[in-house]
Every structure is written in structure tokens, then in C-alpha cells.
Amino acid sequence: MQPVHDVAAPAKTAKGWPQRLFGRWWRRQSPARQDRYATLGPLVSVLLFLAAIITAFWYLRNEELEREQASVKRDTEIAQQQIRLRLIENQEQLVRIAREIGTRTIDQEEFLGQAASFTRERPEITSLVWIGANRARRASYSATTFQAETGALVEPAGTQRPAEPESAFDAARELRQPVYSRPFSDRNGNAVFQIHVPLIDRAAFAGSLVAEYSVESLVRYFVPAEVSNRHAIALLDANDRALASTVSAMPGVASRRAQIVHDVPVAPAGNGLFLRGQGYRTSIGLIGNTLFWMVAALSVLTVWMLLGTWRHMRRRVQMQSALVSETNFRRAMENSMLTGMRAMDMEGRITYVNPAFCAMTGFLESELIGRRPPFPYWPPDRFEENNRLLQQELQGRSPAGGIEVKVMRKEGSVFDSRMYVSPLIDPKGQQTGWMTSMTNITEAKRIRDQLSASHERFTTVLEGLDAAVSVLSVQQSELLFANRSYRLWFGADARGHALLAGGEPSPFANSEFGDTIESLGGLPTTELTEAGSDSREVLIEPLRKWFDVRTRYLQWTDGRLAQMLIATDITARRNAENLAAHQAEKAQVTSRLVTMGEMASSVAHELNQPLTAITNYCNGMVTRVRNEAISKDDLIAALEKTARQAQRAGQIIHRIRAFVKRSEPQRQPAQAKAIVEDAIDLAGIELRRRNVAITTYVAQRLPMLMVDPILIEQVVLNLVKNAAEAIDNAQLPPKRRNIELRVVPRHTPEEGGVIEFTVTDMGPGLKEEVIARMYEAFFSTKTDGLGIGLSLCRSIIESHRGRIKAQNLYNGETVVGCRFSFTLPVDISRSEAEPTAKAATTHSTAVP
After folding, report:
1. Is 765:818 a contact under the CB 8 Å cutoff?
2. Mean pLDDT estimate for the chain
């Protein structure tokens, strides 16, 4: 450390010249002038001090006003918070009661009980009314009268109903949410307002639940006492009319003292009510006290001026002491810094290092002061580079962002550092050297390298994906990230993201007033970012590609809410699915053709009967006409019988053509009864040929099915034909040659409401290994079977979101039959399923 006198000497020299000049000027003045100046000196000091006191007074006055304003604002917001929390709590309870009324959980008597309990705990609510959709009162309860307990209140004749409740009722009916009315006066002239909570019964507006608030009670019960003791709090309407206040009348001192007012709206009412807090300035008496203290201070100042001469001799000592303290303070600051400091002269000699620099390098201050390059902390293998950087530094060409250099500690270890160089300017404005600050960046550089490597790995993985990955800022609609696949398909703009998102509107849209409206408002960000991703398939017409798009929200690195899309090309899969569906359609038509082929002989036999009858009728009529042995009535009767037989043959051919006709699967409303009748008509030919009877049972009032009736008819026909073949091949006796077809509604926890089709035969049943493989394609127990019937049946039922199963029927351990059943989903509840099963249609087709 340099001696103190070396630092103070220039200051003395700098300050000695003005002092000598002033002394020379003072000695040249006459004694009269000296006396005048000596008199004016204290006067000028007093005037300056007076100006300072006045300035301080105005400052204190304004500061007190600001404190009072802050106090009024704080108390007003406390009162608003208390009222707001109470309104929100009451609203939640009213919504609960309205939900119970809408779901018919409570009746009028229970409502009156709940209303009494509700208003008893809430003195600010004067009444609770249940109003129907036609504005008629269903029930009401008043906290001040007993009229509500006996039924609906009746308005007295000639009473004019306020418009505010009517407007609130209409708003609640339109918005389907709680609505607060504007304040109005009740029959007794008290200021009140209402909340209308809509009653929703099965998505229909069923009225509203009306709670009436007393404005005076809100102020009395929910403005804290400590707030009302400090300031006047009042509730005002939209016309600035005071409805209730914590004081009976505003003080009359507003003309004397400036009034402090702070207004806040009463949320969540939003009905024009706002809370006003008032305060008054209390600094009137401060002026007199200030003048008193000003006189006292001026007196002290006059005495102090007389002692100024004595203090003048001590001033130099004080200045020298202050200079030493300032020097020690600055040196303490430099020694306590964690950043290494190094000073060099213009030739590159080290003139100063702080303790932090010595701690970083491990060298003592005595080992560094006065050293020239190469410095001892330079690594031996980097002398040339460090010397080049030093020359650049001495020439003033160091970059403003600093330079990164390697530094060697005294024990030989090396660390990374960043040095910042600036000119060292003396008090005269001349440069005397260079000041360098050094920071250890070894750990920061390691973290930076790790982050860089992590980002490179992350980017490599995303760029290597076959799926398109994009991240879009929700609010600014700015594309934040896009990988190689996205850029290959959609370029580098956000239009591809919008196409993949399905054209969803941005959650941030501008209203007609120019304000930004956030549709996600009220939802916590954590809930959005933690929600699972949804998946959907999107067709991009310009690319002629199908994408499986997964969407989720996340918080971007800068805190913004962003939407991430991962789009996978599934065009090949969609084409394969379409091809498989086309092949399944061909298989269904082939199955129907095979079924008709197997039934060809039966169909021919069935058609032979009406054709033979037509031939016989025609031959008989020709013979009798030639013999003129037929009357006109007999001829007409014979022709009518011939027409009926021809119609019968045409119906058989029409049903067969409709069954085997190739068409696209088309779901449409269909009745289970019509499907069963058409299937039985087609199966009747095969049943009569195999001498098998069938009994059908179809429940009445079954719900409408949304199915392809031809496909379901194919399933029913296949199951009935298989049952008839099993009975005929087993050569069972006549009492066991029957089939039962039942169609009933059912409700299960797994499937919900379904309609169940059951085909039961009394045949030999199925083997266990057959049941396990019966739905496999090309597996058949028939010698001439193709093995595609039951496989197609299962595909058809599962495509309709149903289930099919088969089971043997046992009498003890003996198999006495087999039951095939399949279900089709419908909208039906358990309560509807039981009565519908009681009334059914039973149809029996006996063996001819």
C-alpha cells in the first residue's frame, strides 16, 4: 500500500490554489466590505436554510398524502376482498341447490328447509326464491317474513315490479349461468340486488333460483372493523349514488381538507356496484409546528455561523481523514471482490493485483508486482498465443466481450478464464495503463459444452425421425421448432402445423372491441401441459398423404405456452386397410353366393311348387273354356289363384336377388323384427327341405338399430342354416328337429345397452377343439365347406361393435344342443330393458 501522504499531497496542491486566491481577494477588501460580507454570509445561509425547510415541508406533506392514499387503497381492497369471497362462497352454495332442484333431488318443502338454513347463516341474504320457467314462483323463503313458508309469494295489486330482476332473469335464461342484477330498491326502500342461478332440467331451462342481497348488510357484516375505523367505506351504484356506507353521513370537512377517494368494482357481481373508500388529510397543523422549528433552526444556524471560523481550522484535518477513509474503503472493496483485478502500465509491467487474482493463480502479490511478460501464470505451451493477446491488449484492440485464455496455477493445474480489458485513466484524464478483470469460467464452460452436446444429441434424434415434429407458439402462432421431415413435407412456415392440427382456431382471438380473448382462460397451465396427448388421423390433400397426428401442450423454454404435433405418415397403412375392407366385402358377397349355391336345390324345389300350380291352373282354365264349362266367377277365381302363385314365385326370386346383390356396406336405421323376418323367409326353403321347424321370439318396442341389414341378415341366415344342417346330419327324431330364434334387449356393465340375437338348436353340439377354432378362416367341419361362413359372421358383428359367441347346452354331462348368440349395441338403459322383454312377438314355423 502506498503512503497516505502520497495520495493526499495532490489534493492539498489542488485545493491550495483556490484558498490562496480567496485569501488574497479577502485581504484586498476594505474593512467595511469585510463586515458587509460577514453580515450577508449568515443572512444568505439563513435564506438557504429556509428554502430547504420549505422544500422539506412540501416533501413531507406530499409523502403523507401518498401514505394516506395507499392506506385508503389497501383498506378498500381488503373490504372488496371480503365481500368478493362471500359472494363467491354464496354463489357456489346456490349453484349446488340449483343443481339439486334441476335434477329433482329436492321438492318444495326440502327447498324451504335448505333456504331457511342457508339464510340463517348468511345475514346479508334477505330472501331465497324458486322461480319457474314461466316466471311463476314455485317456492320462496324470506329471512324477514314468514310468507314463504306457506307457499309462493303473491305480488300485491298495483305493485310495480322493478326492471332489474326481469333483466337478470332473461340474462340467466340466455347465458345458462349465474347472473347478478343491478341494484334496486325493494318495497321498503332498501337497496338490494339479486343473483339469478339458472335451473337446468335435462338440458332445458326450468327457471331460476333467486337470492336477494341487502347492500346495507354487506357493508355492515363484511367490512372489517379496523377498516371502518380508519376510513369511510361506501357501496355505490353505476350512477355514483351511495347505497350503503359505514358512516351515517359523509363528514362536512371536505371543503377544508382534500378528499382521498379510491374506487374498486365489486366482483364477481359485475352489476355496476363499486366500493368507494374515503380518507382525509391530517397535516393541517403541521405548518405551525414547522414554522416554530424553522425559527429555532435559524437561531441555531446563526450561532453555528459564528462558530464557523473555529471550524475552519479543523476542516483540513477532517478532509484529510475523509480522504484516508475513502482510500481504505476502496481498497477494502477491491480486496473483497471475487473477480481478479490486475493493473499494468503502458509497457506491460504489472503494477497492481487484488487478493482474488492471487487466490486464482496461487501466486503472492510480491511475486507478481513488477513482473514483465512472460508472466508466471502463463502455461509453457501457450507463450506465443498469450503474448499475441497481450500485445493486442496493449494496443487497445481487445474485444469488448473479453477474451478466453488458459491460466496456470502455481502448483501446475490449468483453468479457463475470461479477461476483460479497459484503459486506466488518472484524475487528469490521461491513460496510465490497462486494467484487467479475470473470471474463472471452467465450470460455466463445462456446463455450456454439456448443454451444447445435449442439444446436438436432441437435434440429431429429432432430425432422424421419419415423423414430422413441430412446436407452435399458441399466442403468437410462431413456429418454434420443426425437424427435417416437417420441413421436407411442409417447408419452414406454420401453415403445415395448422393443416395437421385440423384447422383448429387459435386459443387467443381478438374480440370486436380489439381486446385479446383467451379461450383457455381459467385453466391452469399445469393442467394443460400435464394433460395426455390426443391422436387423430388427418388427410393432407396437397400431399395426398394420411398422417396420424398426436397433439399436446407444453411450456416452451421461455415460459410461453406452445403446442407440439407429432405427425406420422400412415398412408401405406390406410391403403392396406382400404384393400382389406374391399377384400372383406368380396368375401361377404362370395359367402352369400355360396349359401345360395348350397340352397340351389331347395330354391328350385320351392320355385317348382308355384310354377306347377300356375301350369295346372292355366291348363284347367283352357280345358274348361274350350268346353264352355266355366262361369265368369270361376274364371276370375282361377286367375286370382294363378296371380298369387306368380307373385309368390316373384317374391322368392326378389329376396334371393336382394340377398346376393353386391353393394357397399351401408349402415341405416333398421328394425330387428324386419331383419329376422327376411332371414326366416330365405331360410324357410332350407328348413322345409331338411324337415326342421323354427320358433322365433322378438321382443316388442325394441330400439332402432344402426346397421347394414343385409349383413346382419346374412349372419342370422348362416347361423340358422348351420343349426338346420347340424340337426339333419345327426338324423335326430322329430321332437328334437326344431330351432329357437330369440331377439331380446339386454344391459351389461361391459357392453351397456345391446340387443341380443340367440339361435338355439337341439343338435349334437360342438367339440371343444371346434369351438376354439370355429372362427378361423378356411376352418370347417363339413366335408364340402369353405370355412369362411363363421369367420365372416364374426367380422361383420365386430365391425358393428358387437360380440358373437357359441356354447354347448348340457343336461347333466350330456350335450343336448348348441347356442349361438351375438349382440348389437343400442342406446337403451336397464330400466327400459326389463318391461320391453315382457311384451314380445312369437312366431312359429312348423315342419310341413
Report:
1. yes
2. 76
pLDDT at 656 over 70: no
Take residue 455 and report the three cell numbers written for it. Answer: 442439444
* pLDDT at 403 > cutoff 50: yes
Alpha-carbon gap, residue 617 to 623, rounded angstroms: 10
Main-chain phi, psi angles of 42, to 5 degrees: -60, -35
Task: Kindly give the interhelix angle for 709-729 and 672-689, rounded to the nearest 10 degrees.
Answer: 30
From start to end of 635-751, where are the E strands?
Answer: 668-670, 693-699, 705-707, 738-748
Domain 337-440 classification at class level: alpha beta
119 vs 107: CA distance, rounded Å? 18
How far apart CA 392 and CA 348 sit, in angstroms, is: 11
Give the per-residue pLDDT at 654.
Answer: 65
Among 244, 166, 175, 164, smallest CA distance to 205 is for 175
Q: Which of 674, 745, 739, 734 is nearest to 703 (CA)?
A: 745
Return the closest-CA partner of residue 358 out of 444, 443, 420, 438: 438
What class is the 571-664 domain? mainly alpha
* Nearest alpha-carbon partner for 755 in 742, 774, 765: 742
465-507+528-569 CATH, one of 1.25.40.340, 3.40.50.2300, 3.30.450.20, 3.60.10.10: 3.30.450.20
CATH code of the domain made up of 89-215: 3.30.450.20
Quote the cell numbers at residue 758.
340367440
pLDDT in tens, 349-379: 888 888 888 888 888 888 888 888 888 888 8
For residue 556, give Cα distances in angstroms to 498, 561, 808.
18, 6, 61
Topology agreement, domain 337-440 and domain 465-507+528-569: yes
Domain boundaries, the chain: 89-215, 337-440, 465-507+528-569, 571-664, 665-848
Tell me the pLDDT tens digit for each residue of 236-275: 888 888 888 888 754 544 444 447 888 888 877 667 788 8
Q: ∠114-119-125 over CA atoms, to 5°?
A: 135
Instruction: Assign domain 665-848 one CATH number from 2.160.20.10, 3.40.50.300, 3.30.565.10, 3.40.980.10.
Output: 3.30.565.10
Look at residue 845 and tell me whether its pLDDT is greater than 80: no
Mean pLDDT on 475-483: 83
- Residue showing cell 356396406: 665
CB contact at 8 A, 712 and 651 = no
